[in-house]
Design goal:
four-stranded antiparallel beta sheet; 8 strands; 9 helices; 239 residues
């Protein structure tokens, strides 16, 4: 009998918790669902914990838990209201986007601040169907963790009628990374792209291997090189 009471209590608590969560989600709106900033993300995690305890932990009284949950939601609305009218608070709570690529140069100092690696960058570019870093004019890491891209003019969207027959028949290859974070990736060299060839290309450009952060053979067969020192006098840093 006692077990049956616990089961019924759990069912009722779960239904009530779900209904409360549904109303709060409709009330809060889309912001919390998008995880668009830090405190939205924190709130969504905390709400999940509250709802789980309200629904399943029969050792905790339901009414005090619900009171704490609603207090949390009210605090969120208060913070949202104040930050919408205070830019400095909004900047502190929400964070700001970080420029990762500017004028075709990878800003390694900004990447370090954001704890963002070259592997992260190339993965997110591939997810946007971009396989060549050399196509990028600007790349901005948004607060949500998504990457916003502006391509160089010559790589921006065109229609098929803009292409010549030879361009339509051209085959493309996957990019081949030769240097990553200043380290040579030996397994990616072959007879055509050898370490000797790379050294010649570096010498031809009056560069030194130790100064190169990233080097990749693009899908069109051209060599893209990015240096640790980008020679941008005032890099855009939105952090």
């Amino acid at each position: 009998m006692k077990n049956l009471d616990i089961i019924l209590q759990t069912i009722l608590r779960t239904c009530a918790s779900f209904i409360i969560l549904l109303f709060v989600s409709l009330w809060v709106g889309k912001h919390i669902n998008s995880h668009i900033n830090h405190y939205n993300f924190a709130l969504s995690i905390t709400i999940g914990s509250f709802i789980a305890n309200m629904g399943f932990d029969t050792n905790l009284k339901f009414i005090p838990m619900m009171s704490a949950f609603l207090t949390l939601v009210l605090i969120y609305f208060l913070i949202s209201f104040i930050s919408s009218r205070n830019r400095h608070l909004r900047k502190w709570l929400s964070g700001q986007p970080t420029v990762i690529i500017e004028n075709g140069k990878i800003l390694d100092s900004n990447m370090k601040k954001a704890k963002y690696s070259l592997d992260d960058l190339t993965q997110q570019l591939r997810e946007k169907d971009i396989f060549d870093v050399s196509e990028i004019e600007f790349a901005i890491l948004e607060i949500s963790g998504k990457l916003s891209i502006m391509k160089k003019t010559k790589y921006q969207m065109i229609t098929r009628r803009d292409l010549t027959p030879s361009m339509l028949n051209q085959t493309m290859n996957l990019p081949r990374e030769l240097i990553m974070d200043g380290k040579v990736i030996g397994k990616n060299f072959n007879n055509h792209y050898s370490i000797e060839w790379l050294n010649q290309e570096i010498k031809r450009r009056n560069l030194q291997l130790k100064n190169i952060q990233y080097a990749v053979i693009s899908s069109s067969g051209t060599l893209f090189i990015d240096l640790f020192e980008d020679q941008i006098i005032e890099p855009t840093d939105m952090e």
